[in-house]
Automatic annotation (TrEMBL):
Family: Belongs to the GtrA family.
Keyword line: Membrane, Transmembrane, Transmembrane helix
PANTHER family given in the database record: PROPHAGE BACTOPRENOL-LINKED GLUCOSE TRANSLOCASE HOMOLOG
Name used for this protein in its record: GtrA family protein
Region (Disordered): 162-182
Topology within the bilayer: Multi-pass membrane protein
Pfam family name, one: GtrA_DPMS_TM
């Protein structure tokens, strides 16, 4: 497999991961917004407290979706560590998400149902970027590459070839690095 092919495989994996994350996140978004509006319109809770409660419900829903769907192929050996990190990063996302709503509601006085929903959604969007990065980097870590994987073998061959060329004169290095046509 060429370098371009290996890059294509990595890009395809990332796009599949983003799609799965988006699907779970979309369900979480629906749960979050539905719970927020239900609590907001059926109780006397202030807007930010209603939002925090809805966010907690969505966090539970999202963990199940991420662990058993989006990241089911990831390392499962340290569930306590995973859950602790998930909750820690989810709490940070909760602060980001509800900080936007808090600023809009109490800083600018934007508290109509439409404004609350717009800023709740905006907060979720900002927090989602943070959550995607933190979950994939720290919580649901990728397993070490399979040594039998063709892409891994290609990458290792490229690295070995580059290391072998380091000692050769530059013209030889260019000739050896040029693609070979059969």
């Amino acid at each position: 497999m060429s370098e371009r092919g290996a890059l294509r495989v990595r890009l395809d994996r990332l796009l599949r991961e983003i799609a799965k994350f988006g699907l779970v996140g979309g369900v979480g978004l629906l749960v979050n917004m539905a719970a927020f509006n239900l609590v907001r319109h059926t109780t006397e809770l202030p807007v930010v407290r209603a939002s925090i409660l809805a966010t907690v419900i969505a966090i539970v829903c999202n963990y199940v979706g991420f662990r058993y769907f989006a990241y089911r192929d990831r390392d499962k050996s340290g569930r306590t560590r995973e859950l602790t990190l998930f909750l820690l990063f989810s709490l940070a996302g909760l602060v980001i998400e509800n900080g936007v709503l808090y600023a809009a509601t109490y800083g600018f006085g934007w508290d109509t149902p439409l404004q609350s929903n717009v800023f709740k959604f905006s907060g979720i969007a900002v927090a989602t970027l943070f959550r995607f990065w933190s979950y994939r980097t720290w919580v649901f870590r990728a397993l070490p590459p399979d040594p039998d994987d063709e892409a891994v073998q290609t990458a290792e061959a490229i690295l070995e070839r580059a290391e072998a060329l380091e000692g050769e004169p530059s013209r030889e290095r260019e000739r050896a690095a040029a693609p070979r046509h059969r």
